[in-house]
Amino acid sequence: MDFSFNEDQILIQQTFQKFCEKELNYEYVRWMDENVDFPPDDLWKKFVDIGLLSGPVPAEYGGQGMGVVDTMIAYEQICKASMSVALAIGVTTGFGLRFIHELGTKDQKDTYLPLLAQGKFKTCMALTEPGGGTDILGALSTFADDKGDSWVINGQKVFITGAHVADSLFTVCKTERDVKKSMSWTTIMVPRETPGITIHKIGKISCHHCESVEIFYDNVVVPKANTIGTRGKAFYEIMTVLNPERIGVAMMGVGIIAAIYEYCFKYVQERNAFGGPIGRFQILQNYLADMYINLENSRNLTYKAAWLCDHGKPYHLEATMAKLVAAEGARHAGTYGSEIFGGYGICNEYPVSMFLRDAYQIQFSPISNEMSRNMLMQFQGLPKSWA
Ligand SMILES: Cc1cc2nc3c(=O)[nH]c(=O)nc-3n(C[C@H](O)[C@H](O)[C@H](O)COP(=O)(O)OP(=O)(O)OC[C@H]3O[C@@H](n4cnc5c(N)ncnc54)[C@H](O)[C@@H]3O)c2cc1C
Fold this sequence. Notes:
Layout: H1 7-23, H2 26-35, H3 41-50, H4 68-81, H5 83-103, H6 106-117, E1 123-126, H7 136-139, E2 143-146, E3 150-161, E4 168-174, E5 185-191, E6 197-201, E7 212-223, E8 227-228, H8 234-237, H9 239-270, E9 272-273, E10 276-277, H10 282-310, H11 316-340, H12 352-361, H13 369-379
Parallel strand pairs: 1-4
Antiparallel strand pairs: 2-3, 3-7, 4-5, 5-8, 6-7, 9-10
Helix pairs in contact: 1-4, 4-5, 4-9, 5-6, 5-9, 9-10, 9-11, 9-12, 10-11, 11-12, 11-13
The protein binds flavin-adenine dinucleotide.
């Protein structure tokens, strides 16, 4: 068993480490968090130039055809610098790539994959509704009426990350009336500028430079050609998007733990109390030790899930565990990291407070920690504990 990165992977790691030190230092990240609701265009162009957006796009569509492990190596550095930026990339490129590459027609692939690689096409996934995200099968009511050559959509989505800047909203709708709920969903690509769409921002404590918004659909007319995947089968097909999403979100948790650990490790050696550095106090060392262990565990699980995905093996269990362990590790790091910083732990001047706020977002999104635990035991063969 070899856990080390090969030479190419070390190069990816070093390249993105340097990129983040230069382009995503905390001063700039803090400026974004206080001033913008999505990374600015000039930063986006730098992502394009360094190949961050084209990396996972297959070579025949103008990308580099990087696997999930290699993509995660680059992504880890971004996650460590800013979870908002990592999210912005994940929702706009990650969702679009999976929906179109895995489920799209030849025409859709030819049209949109090169644009994704060039950073000229932004997407989002509009699945969750106000009635509930965990029981989404029970809650989903946005309806697309079949009008021959077009769909007419009415309904509401909530917490949709990046929808306010997306070119196209990948909207999961009910399209069938008299069938089982699990056979009634269809994904439809809805251009954001289509008449009848209204977007409202939601105030929240986390990820200020990648907002999540409410979307209202009022008689929104979209051509049938915008259907993604198989009509009525989206509930099953969307797993090809949701499972990789868990790997990406797990990496956000890894990034948060790593960042907080590094800031704290430095701080305990510089800050003095009672005649010496606070790093000599055993209780603070224990906080750091737990962060260190959580980092190792969540990082290993995340890369294992990515490796399984690259090798065409089942990975939903590992992806779910990785998300859970990384999310709880990130929350722990945020809580105890801010303790280590004392009063400065809740001040914007220091990055720990931003990471602490951001860590909360991944406790329940894209899947809650409670539901992750339910599913893990269902996968092991215990009776389904919900529904
Ligand atoms: C900032 C943010 C960004 C998001 N981005 C997106 C996005 O881009 N696209 C998108 O489609 N969605 C997005 N989501 C939605 C996210 O996936 C949902 O918030 C998540 O699925 C939880 O749904 P909910 O918030 O409605 O909570 P609920 O489903 O109402 O859950 C409330 C509580 O009940 C618990 N619970 C529910 N059922 C059970 C059970 N059977 N057993 C034990 N506990 C249970 C949950 O674990 C949770 O603790 C985002 C959410 C947020 C907050």
